[in-house]
Amino acid sequence: MRGLQIVEFKKPxxxxxxxxxxQITRDNxxxxxxxxxxxxxxxxxxxxxxxxxxxxxxxxxxxxxxHECTGVVVAVGSKVTNIxxxxxxxTPPLKNPCGTCSxxxxxxxxxxxxxxxxxxxxNGAAAEYMVSDSNWTVVLPKQxxxxxxxxxxxxxxxxxxxxxxxxxxxxxxxxxxxxxxLGHLGIQFAKCMGLRVxxxxxxxAPLDLVRGLKYAPDFAIDATKGVEYALKEIGSEGADxxxxxxxxxxAYEYGLQLTRKHGTxxxxxxxxxxxxxxxxxxxxxxxxxxxxxxSDAEGIREMVQLVADKGIEVRTRSYPLEEIxxxxxxxxxxxxxxxxxxxxxxxx
Length: 348
Ligand SMILES: [Zn+2]
Ligand SMILES: [Zn+2]
Prior knowledge:
Blueprint: E1 3-5, E2 14-16, E3 29-38, H1 41-47, E4 69-76, E5 88-91, E6 94-95, H2 102-105, E7 116-117, E8 129-133, E9 138-139, H3 146-149, H4 155-166, E10 173-177, H5 181-192, E11 196-201, H6 204-211, E12 219-222, H7 227-234, E13 239-244, H8 250-258, E14 259-267, H9 279-283, E15 288-291, H10 297-310, E16 316-320, H11 324-331, E17 339-343
Helix pairs in contact: 4-5, 7-8
The chain binds zinc ion (2 copies).
InterPro entries: ADH-like_C, ADH-like_N, ER, GroES-like_sf, NAD(P)-bd_dom_sf
Pfam families: ADH_N, ADH_zinc_N
Keywords: Metal-binding, NAD, Oxidoreductase, Zinc
């Protein structure tokens, strides 16, 4: 099959034409003919070898990237009951959690250290076929296209889980810092949950994008105007919770100051450098700091249904596999907004 591969870390992807089609090896697995694969910030970390130490010995280079997979099921394992051949599906990176570790036993298998992560430490979606775990694979409602579904499998699932972690009630204020792939989805999820939504970014293109959404934020604020300006605009003591959907370090102090006393601060971005947090936010302002990782399988199904029921928009731009380098260039442009995806087949 045709696909992209990391042949050597810190080197450009290779486009290969003779990759063996993967086979189902466990009775819970599903073979997907890939339609659209997402390109995520994590892709760069994978390409740089930042997860190399987590790779189990049987998984070696070359590695197929992309951890947001969508497509049509072509074969299922003997114990799969929720999915059949011909189904249109999407699947997040996680597969085959061990079921026996303390996290798995508590129903927290997204934290399982024995799980495979497609596109991160196991082969991913940037090729014609990928094997997924049926327990984590979602059948797509017909109104969700593959192109819209791919960004939901990491970006969407992560910000959705972040909102759940913030644990707010309708009418409360959430600030989402970063109006990128995660942010533009988070704003719409939050509006559909009845929250008052503040979106902050320092770039014009994503702010323009979110202002044009059906579920636009109540406030789309230019971060370069400073946090005092933002606090005045939203006209309260600050946000009840702030979700950091960016890895820009200076944004973290801004986000902490935008969060009200006793509020919640949810870290979603993964900056390479440590996040600076002044003790005053913890001690005198009593802010609770939490992190949020992907969603569990149930959360992913719930989010997909919300997107279908409410007509949430997923803004994407697609590129064929051959144009991966153009995609990467565009990803780093100041004008970049929404989510960039790879179109692997013509299936809709
Ligand atoms: Zn486990
Ligand atoms: Zn991702």
